Amino acid sequence: MRAVTLASIRAHAARLVASTLAIVIAVGFVVATLVLNETARSTILEAAGAEYVDTAVVVTSDSGESLADDVDTLTALDGVQAVAPSWQTSVQAVAPGRSGAQYLLVDSVATDPQLRWQQLADGTLPTGPGQMAISERVGAAVGDVLPVTVYDAEGVGTTTEATVTGVVDLRGDPTAGLYGRAFTTADQAQAWGATDPLELRVAGTPGTDPAALADAVRGALPGAGLTVLTGAEAAEEAAAMLTGDATILTTLLLVFGTVAVLVAGLVIANTFAVLLAQRTRDLALLRCVGATARQIRRSVLGEAVLTGLAASVLGVLAGVGLALAVTAIVGSTDSPVPLSGLTVPPYVVLAGLGVGTLTTLLAAVAPARAATRVAPLAALRPIDPSPLRSKSGVLRLVLGGLLVVPGVGLMALGVLQGDVLIALPGGVLSSLGGLLLAQRAVPPVVAAAGRLLGRFGGVPGKLATGNATRNPRRTAATATALLIGVTLTTAMVVGASSTRATAQAGLVAQYPTDVIVEGNGVPLPASVQGQLEAVDGVVAGAALTGATLVGPDDAGTWSLGVDPDEARPVLRSTTDTTLPELGEVALTPWEAGTWDVRPGDPVTLSAGDRSRTLTVVADDADRTMLNAVDLEALVPEATADTLWLRLADSADQTEVIDEVTDLAGAAVPTAFVTGAASERAAIDEVVDVLLLIVTGLLGVAVLIALIGVGNTLALSVVERRQESGLLRALGLTRGQLRGLLAWEAVLVAGVASVLGVVVGGLYGLVGAASALSDVGEFVLSVPWLQVCAIVLVATVAGLLASVLPARRAAKTPPVAAIAG
Amino acid sequence: MSVPVMTVPGEPAASLSAAVRASDLRKTYGSGETAVHALGGGEGDNSAGVDVAFEQGAFTAIMGPSGSGKSTLMHCLAGLDAATSGTVWLGGTELTGLRDDELTKLRRERIGFVFQSFNLLPVLDAQDNILLPMQLAGQRPDRAWMDAVIGRLGLRDRLRHRPHELSGGQQQRVAVARALLPRPDVVFADEPTGNLDSHAGAEVLDLLRSSVRETGQTVVMVTHDPVAAAYADRVVLLADGRLAGEVHQPTTDSIINALRGLGA
């Protein structure tokens, strides 16, 4: 039988190409995911652990108590070479060429060279006062002198100068792009306000075991509230904090991988079913000659295993190649995604091979068994193929129903309770049940759609419908593969759209101001408002005056005066923000608590010898706010302290904010520019990128499904050679025959995609509604354009999948088909 | 009592009333050493291709042993296969120069087919199968004629059945109905009774003959069965890809004798 198996593979190699392709893609996807995950992990470990590379022991204070006193204790320990406390503080610095100040996190450089972990891209590390090495994000070069401002507890700033001695390369650190970092000597850091070092790094003498040293350190510092770890452990912990979210990402990616594998499995099962149906005669002949059913089954499964193995090898190579490409692309751009080099652990290769081979094998089991059930002589007799009806339908129906009903129930519960952990298993159950029911549900839908087609498509349309519904199992299998891909894609698209809308709505309610410009103690000149409102992209502005008022406890409180009519159009939402009218005041929770007042109570605020009694309208404001008129009455000389700006929806948020920052900084050097606009833009960007990635990933599954559609069509064309020949003999032109097959493809693909978007849309909405319950009120958002695009793309792709098989069918001369 | 008349091959028959005829027809499969001359001799051969004509309104049978080229001849005559050389005329239309689309249209409207097996499309019911060529041509059938045909073929209560619900004989009758409905120039039947028992076979042959008698339909039938060929008005004999004689007003015996004379 082995000779038969190998000969079969050789003879039918071309037919197996499509199913091989399906496995290659699925395995490649899974392997790429795992490789990228491992690479990201090792990159992050390298980056996050950079600090602890040559550190034997790391001591961290959990209680917040300074570890400065412990330095000497540790230095005296046996086996300790050096101890470096971490002096941290933050400053504002102005980089050359920029007018606004930027935040810098200052870290001290260890005195002992062994504990210096910083990698320099340029220059040297600082050696004395007034010197610092900066990270690339700061935007300064070696030799530049930057004004550095330090703010004390009262907010008073002192400016000194510092010279840049070097530029530090933070490598793959994901936080490198978020804010600037400066490295100075310990003394300089302390001069800039660093107190209470909370981390000590200990270097061991050569040959010291870090674990043993850690124990020694632990013994030397008996105080509670300390964590003592070896350098390697600390690196892992730091990496774990960063990869926390990445684990979720990897899990999600593997979910997609599973989907791709599932779809590939369906495609292969389909392929083998049709392949074997064609070879019924050959197999029957083998059985007449003396092969047992089991031998034949084993031969078929052997074919499947060999095919699967070969395809898996290709898939693993493809996956590694893909991962390499992704790493190269990511490395060439300046993205914060941590991927450098390529880590391919052996388990990934084994996993890829195993998954691919196993899937092919499992997919071929049922067709193999079905193929050997036909009695040998019956298969040899030349009779017309009668329509195939499956008998196991009832069991499937019942099982499917048993899964779908509780699944849907759980999903509904999940939405009502707002708990995604309830909705998720509901989704899984209902989709499994749905898959089982699809076999029964899809053919009738195809038939119904086909009846419509028959009315408009003429004879080819009717024939197409007949063909599509003649073999319900095959139609259902083909459609199901596409259905899965389309459902998931739609679920993601709809879910993401609703997520974005809900998150934005929540954010808008909480932070209704696009941009806030604050003088930070310095009054904003009147001209600034006009200047900023004139910026391209700014559509409205409102100025708030500010002054210190005295409350009932005789303590001063910085209060803002707002003109509600001016401010209302600038705010995006007033649901969470109360704008006080005349005689009203909005207090912060602290003040409301201290003065023991609640909304509705009166409170008297005074300035100098003027006072006013106002009614409290809110006790949850960010800043104390009263009506501008009231504030003016109390403090007539109050000047503009804050500007609220509203940006155009279509503007490039980051660009406009940068321009506003520059202008404000030029007018008032201490100006502070913040606002929700940039956060909202960031969320939009993140969701868009995620959506793109996710859609791309699901596109893989859809691609495999479409390969399956084309494959099924190709094989069914071969199956129906005689029919096609008859039709051609009776007068169907080549063009009409191609049209026939095209209609078939469109019918199946169209039905699958429409069903898919309906089911997928529901899943997406359920998922988003249950997951976002605590973000805010759920905002339903269905991106109709994208949904229609999905249906269109899937249908057209199905149509394209029929082109090659149709051409081959049309080329056969009529007589060859009949005689053959 | 009929007397077998042997004519000399190569003499052109009365071409004016020929429904379909072939002139110097050759068909070769493959090339070089593996060339198979199914019809006529090779190019360099002295012997000519096949010249044959089929009268209008007559029931003609083409007979010969296996490998004689009778099916090949029919396929070329019906525009199903392209000849290597020579010409075929369907009435006044030359088939051999036509493009595939034109041939296809011709097959729809002016030629009817009955095959030995796999005659019907399994996805369509009997009625749809019968109407198929006309629907492909976009023509509406003559209702009265259709009723007559269906009635004559005894199919009225079988119209909504699918092929797999019909017996072999019923399937062939549906095929005959389909062939007759457009009132084509010629009905080509390729071993129409090959898969049927003698009773069903006789039914089908009867129907073919009566269509010739009653409506003047031209029928050309390829067969290897002398009993079937006896239903025809004339039998054309083929052997090794060449004409080998004719039998007019055949009976089963005269046909068997003629076949024996071929040395087959």
Structure commentary:
The complex is a heterodimer of chains A (820) and B (264). In chain A, α1 (2-11) packs across α8 (293-332), α6 packs antiparallel against α13 and α21 runs antiparallel to α22. Chain A is 58% helix and 15% strand. In chain A, β3 and β4 (102-108) form a beta hairpin. Residues 383-390 of chain A have low confidence and may be disordered. Chain B is of the alpha/beta class and 264 residues long. In chain B, α5 (168-180) runs parallel beside α6. The longest helix of chain B is centred in the C-terminal third of the chain and has 18 residues, at 198-215. Chain B is globular, with a radius of gyration of 18 Å. The two termini of chain B are 25 Å apart. The chains are: A alpha+beta (820), B alpha/beta (264). The interface between A and B is medium-sized, with 30 and 33 residues.
**Most extensive interface between two protein chains, with residue counts:** A-B, 30 and 33 residues
* Shape, principal axes of CA atoms of chain A: globular
Largest sheet of chain B: 6 strands, mixed
Percent helix range of chain A: 55-70%
Unreliable parts of chain A: 383-390
Task: Give a quick set of tags describing it.
heterodimer; A: 820 residues; alpha+beta; nine-stranded mixed sheet; six-stranded mixed beta barrel; 24 helices; 20 strands; 58% helix; globular; B: 264 residues; alpha/beta; six-stranded mixed sheet; five-stranded antiparallel sheet; 8 helices; 33% helix; disordered N terminus
In short:
The complex is a heterodimer of chains A (820) and B (264). Chain A is of the alpha+beta class.
SSE map:
The complex is a heterodimer of chains A (820) and B (264).
Chain A: H1 2-11, H2 13-48, E1 57-61, H3 70-75, E2 80-85, E3 88-93, E4 102-108, E5 120-123, E6 131-135, E7 145-151, E8 157-168, E9 180-184, H4 186-191, E10 199-204, H5 210-220, E11 226-230, H6 231-278, H7 280-289, H8 293-332, H9 346-371, H10 376-380, H11 393-417, H12 420-470, H13 472-510, E12 515-518, H14 526-533, E13 538-550, E14 556-562, H15 564-567, E15 584-586, H16 589-594, E16 602-607, E17 610-618, E18 624-627, H17 628-634, E19 639-647, H18 653-667, E20 672-674, H19 676-719, H20 721-730, H21 734-771, H22 784-801, H23 803-811, H24 814-819
Parallel strand pairs in A: 4-9, 6-8, 14-18, 15-17
Antiparallel strand pairs in A: 1-10, 1-11, 2-10, 3-4, 3-7, 5-8, 6-9, 7-8, 12-19, 12-20, 13-14, 13-19, 15-18, 16-17
Helix pairs in contact in A: 1-8, 2-6, 2-8, 2-9, 2-19, 6-9, 6-13, 6-19, 8-9, 11-12, 11-21, 12-13, 12-21, 13-19, 13-21, 13-22, 19-21, 19-22, 19-23, 21-22, 21-23
Chain B: E1 18-29, E2 36-39, E3 50-55, E4 59-63, H1 70-77, E5 85-90, E6 93-94, H2 100-110, E7 111-114, H3 126-137, H4 143-152, H5 168-180, E8 186-190, H6 198-215, E9 218-223, H7 226-229, E10 234-239, E11 242-248, H8 252-261
Parallel strand pairs in B: 4-9, 4-10, 7-8, 8-9
Antiparallel strand pairs in B: 1-2, 1-3, 1-5, 5-6, 10-11
